[in-house]
Amino acid sequence: MKNAKFYQAIILSIILSALSLSSAQEDVEKSFTVSRGDNLKVSSSFGNITYDLTSGNQLKVIAQNVLSSELSKLKMEKRGSIIDIDFEGEDSRNFSFEITGPATINLDFSTGGGNVAINGNIEGFAEISTAGGNISTGDINGKADISTAGGNIKISNVNGDADVSTAGGDMKFGNINGTADISTGGGNIKIGSINKSADVSTGGGNISIDDIGGNADVSTGGGNIKVERVSGSADISTGGGNIKLASATGKVDVSTGGGNIRLNNIKGIVDASTGAGNITADILPESQGKSEMSTGMGNITLYVPESARVTIIATTHVMMWDEDQSKLENIKSDFEPTSVERHREARYIEAKFELNGGGPLIEVNTGMGDIELRKMN
User: Fold this and answer.
1) What pLDDT, in 10s, does the model give residues 280-315?
2) What is the pTM for the complete model shown?
3) DSSP-assigned states of every residue in 231-254
4) Which has the closest alpha carbon to 143: 128, 131, 132, 130?
5) Cα angle 317-244-193, degrees, rounded to a multiple of 5
6) How deeply is 154 buried, as exposed, middle or buried, from its count of CB atoms within 10 A (0-12, 13-18, 19+)?
7) SS (H, E, C) 144-203
8) CB 209 within 8 A of CB 200
C-alpha cells in the first residue's frame, strides 16, 4: 500500500513537471545585419508587433512570451535581402514581437490579431495588416498598404500612394504625396493634403480633408463632410449631414439626405441637392454646361459675379398665394428678372434672369423655402 502511494506520488510529480515545462514561457532574441532596401517580413498568428528605430545596420528581433512547447513554431532567418520572421503558435499567451532596426528597410507586417506600431519615420514602403487592432506609424517614404479588420489607424505623412482601410474605426493622416484610397466601415476620417486623386469613404462618421490635388470622391453614410480645395472634379455625398467645399476647379456633384450645403469659389458645373437643408453657393461660371441646385425644404442663396454671362431659372413652391402680381415674396434678387411665370394651380413661381445677355443655365429649385440671387462681392 505504501509502495503504491509512493509510485503514485512519483508519477504525479513527473506529470506536473512536464506540464510546468510545457507551460513555461521565454523570450527568444536574434540579431541580423541588414542593408538599405532590405525587406523585413514579420508574420504572426496573433499578438502585437512593435518596431522602434535605431541607428546603424543592426536589426534585433525579440519574440516575447513564447511557450516552450511552441518554440518549434517560431522561425527567424535571413535569406539574401529578406529577413523572414514567422510565428504560428496558438497558445502562447501575451505573445508579441518587439523589434528595433534602421529606418532604411522596407516593412511587411501581419498579425492575426493585435496592434501594430512603427515608432518613427521610415524611408521605405510599409505593408501592414491585422485581423483586429490599432495601427500607428510615423512618416512612410514610399507606398503605404495598410488594413485592419477593426481598429483605429493613425499615420503621419506618406510620400507615395496610400491604400488604407479599416472595417471600423477612426483614421487620421498627415499629408499624402500620391493617390489616396481611404475607407472605414464606420468612424471619422481626418486628412491633411492629398497630392493626387482621392477616394475617401466611411460607413458613418465625419470627414475632414484639406487640399486634394486631383479628382475627389468623398462619401459617408451619415456625417458631416468638410473639404478645402479640390483641383479637379468633386463628387461628395452624405446620407445625412452638412457638406462644405471651399474651392473646386472642375465639376461639383454634392448631395446629402438632409443637411446644409456650402460651396465657395466653384468654377465648374454644379449639381447640388439636399432632402432638407439650406444651400449657399458662390459660382464663377467658367463652364458651358448646365448647373442645378435643389432642396426639398430649405433656402437657396446663389452668388454670381455681376459681370457673369449666365441664365438663371429660379423655381419655388408657395403655400400662400399673393394676389399682388408685382411681388416675388419667395424670390429675392439683386438682378432684374427677364420673365416671371406664376402657376397658381401647381402653386409655384418660376423667375428667369438673363444676366448680361444670358449664357450657361443655372436652375435653382426649392420645394419649400426662399431663393436669393446675389451679386458676388
Assistant:
1) 999 998 778 999 999 999 999 999 999 999 999 999
2) 0.90
3) SS-EEEEESSS-EEEEEESS-EEE
4) 128
5) 160
6) middle
7) EEEEECCCCEEECCECCCEEEEECCCCEEECCECCCEEEEECCCCEEECCECCCEEEEEC
8) yes
